[in-house]
């Protein structure tokens, strides 16, 4: 049994430094086709992918993201939850479909569909020798992204992905993930708090050691410290408003 895919996925890390070499159109097509082969709930295919190689559009999106690799990459994708095509079908249908695609369940289905597609593309890109980094930062200003990309009602920009050939001095490495026992629960969720605390304590030490080794001791925070700082800050509190404006969560 080949372990090629397993070994490929285990090597994944975010790449944020790319060579200034565009990705060929043939590779872009292959990546999209690989993405489309992902599972899709009830065959809805509730997503679209916007490929961006126009420097001006990249600059506009960089203003939203604040990250230089939104511009400095081989190619840029934006993954969109998309029920626009379903709304077109609805106009010709005798059924009321809006109740479905404007609902919370519709939001979950579209988000999951787009995410499965993106992960297929990420794995395929890395198999081709490219590096990738996801860009949730495009949600910093959803209204601006919708304007830049000319997105119609019943679509929503979920996240981006920059990809390209990693720079020669790109030296990223996989960050340690939560322990297997902490994320895998057999038959029922193990909510024993003392066990959970012990696992988190051990993991915090692993993460602290990782950062310390990567930075020669200049950085040593734990995972718990890192997520506490992140999740205690106000994060995009306009998201429900932006979803409403885009035609979602109206039911």
From TrEMBL:
Cofactors that this protein relies on: FMN
CDD domains (UniProt xref): NfsA-like
One example GO MF annotation: oxidoreductase activity
UniProt keyword annotation of Flavoprotein present: yes
Alphabetically ordered keywords of this record: Flavoprotein, FMN, NADP, Oxidoreductase
Domain Nitroreductase: 10-164
EC class (word): oxidoreductase
Function noted in UniProt: Reduces FMN, organic nitro compounds and disulfide DTNB. Involved in maintenance of the cellular redox state and the disulfide stress response.
Family: Belongs to the flavin oxidoreductase frp family.
Protein name: NADPH-dependent oxidoreductase
Organism: Staphylococcus pseudoxylosus
Organism taxonomic ancestry: Bacteria, Bacillati, Bacillota, Bacilli, Bacillales
